[in-house]
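Good morning C.,

I know you're traveling, so I'll keep this short. The sequence:
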Amino acid sequence: MASARPVGAGFFPLDEELALLPGSLTPALHEQLVRLGAWMPFGPAAKMLVDFMRLTSVSAPTARRHTEAAGTAYVACQTAAVERLEQHPPWPTQPAEKLCFSVDGAMVPLNNGEWAEAKTLVIGEVQPVRSQDGPSHEMTQLSYFSRLTDHETFERLALVETHRRGLTQAKEAAAVVDGAEWIQGFIDYHRPDALRILDFPHAAEYLNTLGALTLGDGQSAPREWFTQTLHPLKHEGPTAVWAEWQQLQEAHPDREEVQKALAYLDKRLAQMHYPGFQAAGWPIGSGAVESANKLVVEARLKGSGMRWARPHVDPMLALRNVVCGDRWAEAWEQIAPHLRQQAHQRRRIRSAQTAQVTAPATETVPEGQPLPAAVKTPTVTLPVSIPAPEKSEPKACPEQSRRVKTDPTPWRPAPNHPWRRLPIGKALYQPATSPN
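The tokens, ready to paste straight into the viewer:
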């Protein structure tokens, strides 16, 4: 009996109807593994899934592969959404009353000892809160968008999140940021009329530098001077301390560090009217984005001994944005179809490649041209008549030769047929014994 030919990998049509994902896990287990991989290192994520779901085994490479593939799919979905928004005007959304946003960066360790800055956008609604210092305001219902890229690409890709939150349509908007120039360009791109507030701790840092260079030991400003300068700035505004800044500038005309710090503060005087900002119900600190750097980026990508390939950073950041922003269900509805579509495309490509390999090679020769010498069919002279080979009649067993050809009874081997003497023959066929 001839053996069956080996076949390639296939995919059962029912698997597509059941919406299975690539791999050996069920869709529910696949989703849970990716979600765990977004929260913790891949090894503990795989072990936790095995322990919780009582599976045989799931390896850390499997967790890494599924998690990074899901993150890559979500990055592709968001990038495609940005391209659609750029081609068509944004559709109207329900405008929020007051939205506040902040932008900052955090360093991520890459392979080969490199470090790169991952930029993060935080958007939230402003709500009043009570604290020890009295009534204040803070950002709530936070959402995040992070990418490892240059600032121009980042401000473009962030359109998917600013549009989702309705930043353009919000009745009031403010940006609490540090004084980086690229962040000012980010504000101009997304909400140029937003109220710009210099992060108060950032302004305090520059004041401390001034006091340390002019009155202190070079490392820190005298506590009394620092307190007397910082308190009026917060509760009275920059005009209360402007005269003292001018005196420092005149007293140290040759100190480059002093002149640089004063020029930084002078350029941002309009962003330091903290009493008016607080009275209008805006926060004056960018603590939301500072916390996002630690929670979204550093808590997962900056662990002990971690090093990341650059193409794998954005997929992990995209998943961190949705798990930390409590938007997992919304994101997975986009990720799962994308993964199934990618798997379907890979199967079609493999099928096409297999068909090309197994198809007979043919060469098309234009009509009227002779075949190349290498492929010409040689001329063979055959004899006029070829004798047919002699046919040998098969030898029939004695029982078969005695059987009448017109007997309608099916033929059975004789009792002394060699087939009956084989063990398998004895097991499968026993001649019936006639009754005595």
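Safe travels,
E.
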